[in-house]
Write a structure and sequence with these properties.
There is one protein chain. The protein is an alpha+beta fold. It is 23% helix and 29% strand. It has 6 helices and 10 strands; from the N terminus they run βαββαβββαβββααβα. Strands 1, 2, 3, 4, 5, 6, 7, 8, 9 and 10 form a 10-stranded mixed β-sheet that branches. Helix 3 packs across helix 4.
């Protein structure tokens, strides 16, 4: 079904990333989240449709509320699009909401913050039902030391020591608003909120904090790590399966103020 104008749709979706090669579509595989969405929307609209996400998630990383947008010339309602997509998407991808937004809305460029959770299974009893979503580390962890180390990471800093990305001209300065570390039963959950995160940043930060928790490094070393800016001095890259994107935040006024001008 077509209408006389191209519309911009914002979607919020969740997915279990276990069997996917990450968010971003790739030439050598169709098994990515973006690839699956674009293939389905192209069938729905009858023309090639591009989907733009708020950011990339790595292979094996999950999302409870990833945000994306796409343009389409269709008379279908937002609810009809949501139902259509959920009817034909695989069971490990689900569309939570579809909303028409102003033409200038961009899911990545308009994002002002994100929240990630990394889950560590901190017991020697195997996590049978949670095994796809947690990193198993049975060693005793000093939670107070990890919280002290996390305190040095909060704020606006250069996080180039905490990314796997090769050197580029892009800034590695980011703002971390909060880091919380809490025990929930057999789990320790690391929650990170900030204005944006570098490639592998959350997983390296978690690896560094866990090394502090096991006594391999002192909390104060975080300051030296940030000042030195060398990836090899930071902690290990923990497995992807423990990481979930739980929220993408927007300043609604930044793209809704022209809503009456459609």
């Amino acid at each position: 079904m077509n209408c006389d104008r191209v519309r911009n749709f914002k979607i919020v979706l969740q997915y279990e990333g276990t069997r996917y090669q990450g968010w971003q579509k790739q030439e050598n595989t169709e098994n990515t989240i973006q690839g699956r969405l674009e293939s389905l929307l192209t069938k729905m609209t009858g023309v090639k449709t591009q989907v733009h996400g708020s950011g990339r998630t790595d292979a094996g990383v999950h999302a409870k509320a990833q945000t994306a947008h796409f343009h389409a010339q269709t008379a279908m309602s937002c609810e009809e699009i949501r139902i259509y997509m959920n009817t034909y998407l695989p069971e490990d991808i689900a569309i939570q909401s579809v909303e028409e937004v102003p033409a200038r809305f961009h899911s990545r460029l308009n994002a002002v913050g994100k929240t990630y959770v990394y889950r560590v299974w901190n017991t020697d009893i195997p996590p049978v039902f949670e095994r796809k979503y947690v990193y198993v580390l049975p060693e005793a962890l000093d939670e107070a030391a990890m919280r002290q180390a996390a305190g040095y990471l909060v704020g606006r800093h250069d996080f180039r020591a905490f990314t796997s990305a090769k050197k580029s001209r892009k800034s590695t300065v980011r703002t971390i608003e909060t880091i919380t570390i809490e025990r929930v039963g057999s789990e320790i959950r690391f929650t990170y909120s900030g204005d944006g995160f570098l490639y592998h940043m959350v997983r390296i930060l978690t690896g560094t904090l866990l090394e502090t928790g096991t006594g391999k490094r002192r909390p104060e070393e975080i300051k030296t790590l940030m000042a030195g800016g060398l990836r090899e001095n930071a902690g290990v890259l923990v497995p992807a399966k423990g990481l979930t994107l739980v929220e993408v935040r927007y300043n609604d006024r930044s793209f809704y103020e022209d809503k009456g001008k459609w």
